[in-house]
Amino acid sequence: QIFNQHNAEAPNLEQAFHRMAQMEPNLDHDVSWFLLPSYWAKMVVALISFLCFANSYDGDFVFDDSEAIINNKDLRAETPLGDLWYHDFWGSKLSSNTSHKSYRPLTVLTFRMNYLFAGGFYPVGFHVINIILHCTISVLMVDVFSILLGGLQFSNKGRRLNLAPKSSLLAALLFAVHPVHTECVAGIVGRADLLCALFFLLSFLGYCKAFRENKEGHTFSVFWVLVSVVLGAIAMLCKEQGITILGLNAVFDALVINKINLLELIRKLLYKDKSLENAVLLRKGLLFRITLLMCGGASILYIRWRIMGTGPPAFTEVDNPASFADSLFVRAINYNYYYSLNAWLLLCPWWLCFDWSMGCIPLIKSVSDWRIIALAALWFCLIGLICQALCSEDSHKRRILTLGLGFLIIPFLPASNLFFRVGFVVAERVIYLPSIGYCILFTYGFSLLSKQAKKKKILAVAVLGILLINVMRCALRSSQWRSEEQLFRSALSVCPLNAKVHYNVGKNLADKGNQSAAIKYYREAVRLNPKYVHAMNNLGNILKERNELHEAEELLSLAVQIQPDFAAAWMNLGIVQNSLRRFEEAEQSYWTAIKHRKKYPDCYYNLGRLYADLNRHIDALNAWRNATVLKPEHSLAWNNMIILLDNTGNLAQAEAVGREALELIPNDHSLMFSLANVLGKSQKYKESEALFLKAIKANPNAASYHGNLAVLYHRWGNLDLAKKHYEVSLKLDPMAPGTKENYNLLRRKLEQLQKKGG
């Protein structure tokens, strides 16, 4: 609702405005809640939203953070900034068949800035920015809810009035402390949702500014409508959902600015009522503004399409099983069940999980499944709310319910599977924006209950209790997001049927060296999902290291049978076959891996080891050279080249390779050690000594380093230093091969020298 200055000379215009505002229904009349000045309300919301998620500030990089940040080359300074506009969120080319088509260049740009300012991958800075963003969004929600719940009205000085200060504070607090937001705030990749929400809200507030009457007396500003479109485009460049704000702005314009009664409009359209010629569509510039929004939205989508191309994202059945179902009935019924789960997470955010795929939610395949009740409950509530939003005689009620449903449903549409397949079943992050609609409906419901309740204070205490419980739940959930171990284990009780949960717990244990426990979780992941090739590959790797080669071979063979282009599994199968001395099969497996992944330095390294075992020295050197070309910092490949050339008597070539390697990896002590050995054999004792000492300084507890330096001194004639380093080597490793014999030879020589001297 807008108040325009039609008579600038009226002395008591603002008083008249307030009297008019009081004639409108107002939620605050019935809400028993705290009344604070706008500044203090925003301070309270900011403080409480900060307290909810503050303990996540020093968390690690967890789950998807590894792929989106640590392994994303777009964050590195050497990657041209222009590449961000042609890559997806994970750093892959949008034209690639493996791209998820998640086009969020502005979010990646903020990650890059974090990385550059911090000087590396330090998670604290990333987490702090996320917390600040959520606090900022929560503060903006006070203004947004004041408009959505109280209407849009301006004073004669052009200031927007908050006609629902109590209701807007309550709704903003509900939003700020909702536990379902934890993934967006505590998970760094959730920044996409946070940035999208920020510009989404700014677009809405900008659109509202368009209706503040200017000095020329125009009832709306084209400039602010266009600003709103631009901010909507920025929101979309942070995450796909951002584009939906343009539709919501149109809904807001129709319902609040033009006060359109949708049911009445539908009736007139159905009966072709001639009065439509003078309908509100043609008044107050609504048609013009909606045209601007539609043209802006179409332009944004066209540009996005031109950049991204037409290819659909590549998802698998395990990501979203319902979307791969042959039956339209099965797809429809499961999609609706997913909607009911999202609704339940908003109502009761107690069971939260980092991933809901891979069997976490089994498909509903018949109407006899008891979970159909959830669908019925969802649609019963939605239909009831829609009927009230359309048919109520109370225009205030119609407006709030329609806006609540609009903000609940429209931002969720990109994740609904209705327009295109998405790569998840349920994702808590995608209901960050739809929770705005939930907060509107909750606050309106609270006002209705307050109106009927005799003891309003008890009701207010109950709502305060809900807020406190949510704050504690947020703090607990934030602490679970601090490390992968806590995050993955927290999911075991929520989604025990999710193979990915067991896989991630197993991977975390394997990374910490607890192979026995990891095997248990990997086996469970494979049992839950017999086609889970990544679990088979990792389990096969552990079994290979434990010398359980035959079972490892079975698992890896099954993995490549299920997914023939799984390059890592082919390489690991080759390693197992090599260990079983089936060299021809191993070579074939390595080349198959390289066929499916052209740039695979680790596979070339292992192929080189195979050729070395077969005494095919030139082939081995070529394979290792390929590995170092693809990955110049591949220390093992460089080392093996130096050692092979050394062992075959090619000392000059070994020295050249060693020097080349150290130029590329100057602080690698193993390369220093290998080159020092070569230089010692070439009688370049001084240079060899310097490299040995440098290697020992970097790794003082390596017995072989001290032992080989002792051999150098022994050859060089520095017997006392040789004796010293032999003793250090034997102290570190009493069983060091050859060292004890060399030490005994030295002692005998020293004894002989003493006798001669005596």
How would you describe the overall organization of this protein?
The structure is a single chain. This protein is mainly α and 758 residues long. Among the domains are: 38-308, no CATH class; 330-459, no CATH class; 498-581, Serine Threonine Protein Phosphatase 5, Tetratricopeptide repeat. The protein has 33 helices and no strands. The protein has helices at residues 13-23, 38-53, 65-70, 105-118, 123-150, 165-176, 182-186, 191-209, 222-238, 244-257, 262-270, 286-308, 328-347, 372-391, 395-409, 435-452, 456-480, 484-492, 499-511, 515-528, 533-545, 549-562, 567-579, 583-596, 601-613, 617-630, 635-647, 651-664, 669-681, 685-698, 703-716, 719-732, 739-757. Helix 19 (499-511) runs antiparallel to helix 20 (515-528). The longest helix is centred in the first third of the chain and has 28 residues, at 123-150. Mean pLDDT is 88; it is low at 1-23.
Q: What's this model, at a glance?
A:
Keywords: Endoplasmic reticulum, Membrane, Repeat, TPR repeat, Transferase, Transmembrane, Transmembrane helix. This protein is 65% helix and 0% strand.
Properties at a glance:
758 residues; mainly alpha; Serine Threonine Protein Phosphatase 5, Tetratricopeptide repeat; 33 helices; 0% strand; elongated; disordered N terminus
Helix-strand blueprint:
Elements: H1 13-23, H2 38-53, H3 65-70, H4 105-118, H5 123-150, H6 165-176, H7 182-186, H8 191-209, H9 222-238, H10 244-257, H11 262-270, H12 286-308, H13 328-347, H14 372-391, H15 395-409, H16 435-452, H17 456-480, H18 484-492, H19 499-511, H20 515-528, H21 533-545, H22 549-562, H23 567-579, H24 583-596, H25 601-613, H26 617-630, H27 635-647, H28 651-664, H29 669-681, H30 685-698, H31 703-716, H32 719-732, H33 739-757
Subcellular location: Endoplasmic reticulum; Membrane
Domain DUF1736: 311-383
Keywords: Endoplasmic reticulum, Membrane, Repeat, TPR repeat, Transferase, Transmembrane, Transmembrane helix
